[in-house]
Amino acid sequence: MSYSDFSLAKVKRDFNLKIVENARFLPEIQPIKPTPYLQEALSEGIPLATATSSEKARSELIISPILLEVRKILERKVSLFSGEDFTVAPDLGLSGVCDFLISRSPEQIFIEAPVIVIIEAKKGDLKPGLGQCAAEMIAAQKFNETNNIPIKTIYGSVSSGTTWRFLKLVEQTLSIDLTDYTVPPVEILLGMLVWMVREG
Fold it and tell me: In what order do the strands lie in the sheet with 97-103?
């Protein structure tokens, strides 16, 4: 088994989660103005990724530049991983590759605790990605605990690049904000991601 085998129903059952739907858990966020680099990357990348409509194009041309900007805003004091193996507990099915993972550690050669944000890329319908993202968030929770850096909250997102849906895991309660946040504009999204890394 791997993360991609998890539906939301399965992850709820296997890990005894309580799911809270449609709860906005983010406060009012101060928008962050993008750099000219990000503005140009998105003005070129969004039309191309939308036209080809592949998950890989959306990851590389939209999601990745946004996350690089978040890392830059945070003065590179966090690490960003893309397509890294994040096998934590294979016996529980918590194995496989995460599309994107942000750790509050500046170490970039390998994944260090605490892992704080998981982002799963999808090319279209976000709903099927919720279970996979939730399983990866549980893995992050266990990874942090195993490394003796437990943190209260893990954040996650399922994103097509132009649409983002957010999740929050605290102990065994998974909150899903069913509001879809769209890009453009990118200012609110940047504010949200930076807040999650700082506050999680």
Answer: 18-21, 173-182, 163-170, 153-159, 115-121, 97-103, 79-85
- The identity of residue 177, as a single letter, is D
pLDDT value at position 55? 92
Give the separation between CA 178 and CA 176, rounded to whole angstroms: 6
Asked if 133 contacts 177 with a C-beta cutoff of 8 angstroms, the reply is: no
Amino acid at 181: Y
Element (H, E) at 119: strand 115-121
pLDDT of 187 > 90? The answer is yes
Count the Cβ atoms, other than its own, within 10 Å of residue 145. 13
Tell me if 132 sits within 8 A of 120, measured CB to CB. yes
Cβ of 1: how many Cβ atoms within 10 Å?
15
Report residue 61 CA to chain centroid gap. 16
Q: Is the pLDDT reported for residue 43 higher than 70?
A: yes
- Residue 178 to residue 173: CA distance in whole angstroms: 16
Enter the DSSP assignment of 128. Answer: T
Average pLDDT over residues 171-198: 96
Whose tokens are 């918590």? That residue is 94
CB atoms within 10 A of CB 21: 9
> In the prediction, which pLDDT does 79 show?
97
What pLDDT score does 200 carry?
67
Give me the mean pLDDT over the 54-81 stretch: 96
Q: How far is CA 100 from the centre of its chain?
A: 6
pLDDT tens by residue, 102-115: 999 999 999 999 99
